[in-house]
Amino acid sequence: MILSVxxxxxxxxxxxxxxxxxxxxxxxxxxxxxxxxxxxxxxxLKIIMGQDAPDAGTxxxxxxxxxxxxxxxxxxxxxxxxxxxxxxxxxxxxxxGERAEHLQQKIAEAGESGEVPQTLLNEYGQVLDRFERLGxxxxxxNARQILAGLGFPVEDFGxxxxxxxxxxxxxxxxxxxxxxxPDVLLLDEPTNHLDLESVQWLRGFIASYEGAVLxxxxxxxxxxxxxDHVAAIENRRITxxxxxxxxxxxxxxxxxxxMRAKRAAQEREIAHMQVFVDKFRYKPTKAxxxxxRMRRIEQIKSELVILxxxxxxxxxxxxxxxxxxxxxxxxxxxxxxxxxxHIYSGLDLTLYRGDHVxxxxxxxxxxSTLxxxxxxxxxxxxxxxxxxxxxxxxxxxxxxxxxLKESNTVLQEIDSVAPTWTVPQQRSLLGAFLFSxxxxxxxxxxxxxxxxxxxxxxxxxxxxxxxxCLDEPTNHLDIDSVDMLENALKNFxxxxxxxxxxxxxxxxxxxxxIDIRDGKMTVIDGDYDYxxxxxxxxxxxxxxxxASATETPAAAPVRSVPRTHRKEDTPASAPARxxxxxxxxxxxxxxxxxxxxxRLKSRRTRLSALEKNLERxxxxxxxxxxxxASEELYADQERFNAALAEYNDLKKKIADxxxxxxxxxxxxxEEIARGCA
Length: 677
Known about the structure:
By secondary structure, the chain is α/β, with parallel strands linked by helices. The chain is 48% helix and 17% strand. The chain has helices at residues 41-49, 82-88, 91-113, 118-133, 139-149, 166-180, 196-207, 220-226, 245-280, 287-302, 367-375, 410-417, 423-432, 449-460, 479-490, 503-509, 528-549, 574-578, 583-628, 631-635, 637-676; strands at residues 3-12, 15-25, 30-34, 56-61, 67-70, 184-188, 212-216, 229-234, 237-242, 327-338, 341-352, 356-360, 382-387, 393-396, 467-471, 495-499, 512-517, 520-524.
């Protein structure tokens, strides 16, 4: 046990967040803490950190445990360079280094005067071992790797923290936390403000993290890749599940079916006995039996199964926007610069009615800039923007939350943009955005970040325009809200431009993908899966373009050909090049390939064996995950302990095998690359 939450209770006035909430986190566990907005996930994290006090219950950490906490919002006002700020945050590691130096000096002094005490040697060994395991000798190197993984370009490492926006400051806070390498990581919405590539890096980081992790997130794909346990806040209690988020959903539904069946059986039994009581309670010869049944009814009622609150699934369809012409928006010969910083040059792009476009690429590449130019929020430095016939634009970004008036109620905010709607119509719209009952009378000032985001989206979509531009619309939304938005966007008949780190949303909604990086734009006519398939080809083309750019005075502008006329580039075919080779050249190349295959034979054999073993071990791992989720196994302590021990051994074995597989694969690829050079 590294963290224990025991019978915790928390209320705000008459509203009970949770009662008797209990769960336990063990070393290297990856927990997702899930529940609807307002269920108390962030409050529970603050209670665990000691920033808030529970009404009852206890939080217990193992002795000497170091805890790191990433809050939803953070603000740095530091005038220190980013790299220095991150390295300086690892004060525990630096203290270990100082302690090791001090102990080393004491050992040297003791050695000069006689025998060195064993206790001194033991402490020095323990301190030095922990210092090395936490990366004490490579602090700055590790800091640079973490910053790069979170999307910081190398040239930004020396910039002052105060120069960065809120989203980038959140990344700095993440980097500081990861460098410290705490025993327990508490992460509240860590993927907010990250791009898709940084989210993928974060998945790998958490998967290989040696400590325990407790994550609050709305990103289903992220949780599926990262977690092996789920703690769900349901009915003001916490229920734990073994497995990732998708496994939790299946287990929850299976458990719910069992609970519904048991509840139905209890209600049938109550109804059956109530008939007897109603008929015979006043008949002297049957009174005793009626009284016994009444006591039994009360007992069953006290044991009545309480069904969890169902997830709020609301089908919502946007009102149809005004019908536009086929061409919705066109950028032609567009360039964009901020002072000396050039973002785009000679950009051409045309979007059509029905396009659902995802803008992807690393943070800082210019996705938000492109969206703002498409929306007309920012003007290009050169070139033209043209809107199609009858095209209006609606633009959503996080700063729109600041436009909400805190003294207004939720209903008043909607009334400000839909004054001609009736109150039932306004309530119906708010219900689609998960504001129901008394929620509509809440003041904006008391809403959570997620509730404010939902309200801002609802205001924008009261009467949607033909062109919707959404910049990270899922930040601070819970999974039910994201589901509602996803379903609505999929069926939206207008044109959509979307920036999101939520891979599930992008995969569900996009029918075109625009990859933006290094001031260049590549349009893929297809969904996100097709884009992933084409990404390797994109990388090869980018490398070819960079190579040709060094041979010509200036690079040609990047253009997006209208899709009705677009053709795939067709590089010179390999057979045509082969026709010009002599027999001697072909023979020499064949011999070189044979020699390469001989050198790689043993490694390929080992790689094949690893893949077979991994397939077998992963299958067994999945079996154990399913097995440990069953109540039958929990009832048999001996079998459960054996399964848990096998599970822990298998998890380490798989991780080691994956590391070896990756190392061998890299060696083979590098060897092949050298052989082909």
